[in-house]
Design brief:
alpha/beta; IolE/XylAMocC-like; single chain; about 270 residues; 10 strands; isomerase; Xyl_isomerase-like_TIM-brl; globular; isomerase activity; TIM Barrel
C-alpha cells in the first residue's frame, strides 16, 4: 500500500513546501484538494500550462506521485449540475497531464423534500457522464462515501445505474462508520468498487463530531487497515486531515509526521 496526504492538511503551504515535506517525510504521493488557496485545480499555479512541465519534473525528482484530484463536483443540485460536469471534465484533463489515476466527486446531499431514488438517479447520471468522458484516459471517477451518500446500500444503488467502466468508489473511513455502518460490511459490499481511501478520524459526541489526529478518535483505523491488507488492497492510504475547514486542528508540521509514523506501523504489522 502507498501512503499519501491530502493538501487540506497544509492549506497555507506553497507548492514547493508541500513537495519538500512529502519527500522528506517519506510519503509516496500527494492528493490534491486546493493548492496555494486555489480550489479549482486547473487554475492553481503549478498546473497552469506554462508551469506543468516543471511541476512534473519536480514530482519526478522528489519520487512523488499525484494519487487523486479532489473536485467540488456534486450532483444533487440541479442548478449546479452542469457546472459540476464541466469541473469534472477539467479535472480529468488535468489528471491525464499529471498522470494521476483518479478524480474524486461527491454525491452529496439528499435535500429536504427530495426522494432518495430521485437523487440517486441524478448522481448516477453525473457519474456516467464523467465516466464516459474518462474512458480510455486511464483516469477513474470516484464517488466518495460522504454526506448523505454514506453507506453501501445507497452507493450500490447508484452504481447499479451507472453505465461506465471508469467509475469507482473512494472509501472515506470516517463517514460510514460514524453513521452506523461497520467497516466489515462497508468493505464486503463495496470491495469490487473501492479504488482509493481517505484515512480520517473523529471523536463523536452529543453535539456531533470533532476531527482529530489519526488514532485519537473513534474510527477503528487499525481494524480497517487490517481488512484492506487481508483482502489484498494495494492502493493508497491517503490522509484526509481537514485543517483548511477546521482551523483548530494541529498544524501540518505536527499532523503529517504523526500520520506517517502511525500508518507505517499498521502497514508493516
Amino acid at each position: 500500500m502507498k501512503i499519501a496526504f491530502q493538501t487540506l492538511a497544509s492549506p497555507n503551504w506553497s507548492w514547493e513546501q508541500t513537495l519538500n515535506a512529502a519527500a522528506q517525510l517519506g510519503y509516496d504521493g500527494i492528493e490534491l484538494r486546493g493548492v496555494e488557496g486555489e480550489m479549482y485545480l486547473p487554475r492553481a499555479r503549478p498546473f497552469l500550462p506554462e508551469n506543468i512541465e516543471q511541476t512534473l519534473l519536480d514530482l519526478q525528482k522528489k519520487g512523488l506521485e499525484i494519487c487523486c484530484l479532489d473536485t467540488s463536483c456534486a450532483f444533487h443540485n440541479e442548478e449546479k449540475y452542469r457546472a459540476s460536469i464541466l469541473e469534472g471534465k477539467d479535472a480529468i484533463d488535468l489528471a491525464v497531464k499529471l498522470q494521476a489515476p483518479y478524480i474524486r466527486v461527491f454525491g452529496d446531499i439528499i435535500p429536504e423534500g427530495a426522494s432518495e431514488v430521485e437523487i440517486a438517479g441524478k448522481i448516477a447520471s453525473g457519474l456516467t457522464e464523467l465516466g464516459r468522458y474518462a474512458e480510455g484516459t486511464g483516469v477513474t471517477v470516484l464517488l466518495e462515501t460522504h454526506g448523505d451518500i454514506n453507506n453501501h446500500r445507497i452507493i450500490k444503488h447508484i452504481l447499479d445505474q451507472t453505465d461506465s467502466s471508469s467509475v469507482g468508489v473512494l472509501w472515506d473511513f470516517e463517514h460510514p462508520y460514524l453513521h452506523g455502518e461497520e467497516p466489515e460490511l462497508t468493505y464486503r459490499e463495496l470491495a469490487p468498487y473501492i479504488k482509493h481511501t481517505h484515512v480520517k478520524d473523529a471523536i463523536k459526541g452529543e453535539d456531533g463530531k470533532k476531527l482529530c489526529l489519526i488514532g485519537d478518535g473513534d474510527v477503528p483505523v487499525p481494524q480497517i487497515v487490517s481488512i484492506l491488507k487481508e483482502n489484498g488492497y494495494n492502493g493508497w492510504l491517503s490522509l484526509e486531515y481537514e485543517k483548511k475547514w477546521a482551523p483548530y486542528l494541529e498544524e501540518p508540521e505536527v499532523s503529517l509526521p504523526a500520520y506517517m509514523s502511525y500508518i507505517k506501523k499498521l502497514v508493516l504489522l
